[in-house]
Amino acid sequence: MKRRLLTSLAALLFAVGAASFAAPSAEAAGITAYQEGDKYLKLGGRIQVQYHLSDTDDGPTTDSLFLRRFRPYIEGSIYKDWKGKFEFDMGKASGEDEMSVKDAYFQYSGLEKVTLSFGNKNFPFSREKHTSSNNLQLIERTFVGDHDYGTPDRQLGLFAEGKLGADKVTWEAAVASASIDPGTSKLDFDTPVNKDSDFNEGWIFGGRVDYHPFGLVAFSQGDFDKTPLMAAVGVGAFIWNNDGDNNASASSVESVTGFEVSGAVRYMGASVDAQFNIFKADAEDTTLTSGIYRDGTTDLKNFALKGGYMVLPPRLELAAGFELQDADNYAENWTRTSLGVNYFIKKHDIKLQATYRIGKSIDGTEDKDVDELFAQAQYNF
After folding, report:
1. 56-84 pLDDT, tens per residue?
2. Cys-Cys with 77: which of 83, 121, 151, 181 at CB 3.0–4.6 Å?
3. Structural domain of residue 51, as residue ranges?
4. Is the whole-model pTM more than 0.85?
C-alpha cells in the first residue's frame, strides 16, 4: 500500500538526515596483504544489504530484506607487468539466491598505453555498466546499464584498452563468447561462465571510445570534492550472432546489433550522466510477436538521465533520474522516475542509500504501474 511505502521512505530519510552529522572521511577499499617488488596480493570485496518494497496497482504490496551483493575478490601478481583477479558473488540476483563468477581474468600491462586482458570481464559497452555497483547514485541500474535490456554482461574473451594522444581519448575493444537467456520480455545478455542449459550461444565483437576534453572522468558517480568542470562523451557499438549450437527455445535470438552514445559532467558538487542505447534484435522465429518482438524483430531503445548534487559535501547527496524504454511491440513507453538520497560515511566505501522509483507502463503495457522503495547499506573492504 502507498501509505506503507511512503511511511518507510520518511523513516529512511529521517535516519539518513540524522546520520549526516557524523564526520565522514575517505579511505580506499581493498587491503594489500603482501607486497615484495613486483609480487603482491590484494584482498577485498563488497557487502550490500538491501531492503526492497514493491507496490503494484493491481497486486499486493511485497517487501524483503536480503544480501543484494556479497562479492569477495583476490587480485595479485608474481611477475612484472602481469596480474590476475577473480571475484565471485553469493548475493541475490534476479530474485534468486545464487553463486556466480564475476571477474576472472589475467592481464598484461607491459605495452605502452595498452593493456591486454583474457578471461571473464566487463564488455566494452555502456558507460553505466562500466560504473561499479559500488559507485552508483541510484541503488539499482537504469535500463541503459542493465544486462536484462540489451547491454552485454561480463563476457569470456580477449580485451584491449588504452589511451591516445595526451590521454584525453580512452578506448576499449573486445572479442568474446556471449550468451543470451532467450525470452520475449527481455534481451538478456549473460556471461557464458554462468550459463544455463537453454542459453543461446554466440560471438560478440565491439568496442567504445571516450573523449575527456578537461581530463579523465572516472566512471564512478558523485562529485565529492566540488571539482572544476570535467566532462566526457563516449560512443560504443557491438555485434552478436548466434552460432547455432543451442536454439531449442521458441524465443531463440538470431542476432543483435547495439549502439551507445553517452556523456558525463562533474562540476562543483554536481554529477550528471546521460546515455542512449539502441539495439536491433532478430529472433530465429520470424513470426514471433510477443513481448518486445513484432514479426520476429525489434528495435529496443533505452534512455537514461540521472544526476546528483552534494548538498553537504562530502556527506550528503540528493539524486534523481529518469529513464525510458521503447520496443516495437510496446503499446506505451515504459518509464521510470527516481528520487534518491545518499549518505557517505567513508565515501563509496561505507554508505547508506535510499531510492524511490515510480514505474509507468511496465513492459510497455498501458496502466501497468509500480512504485518501489529501495534502501541499501554498503561496506567495501
Report:
1. 988 889 999 999 999 999 999 999 999 99
2. 83
3. 2-380
4. yes
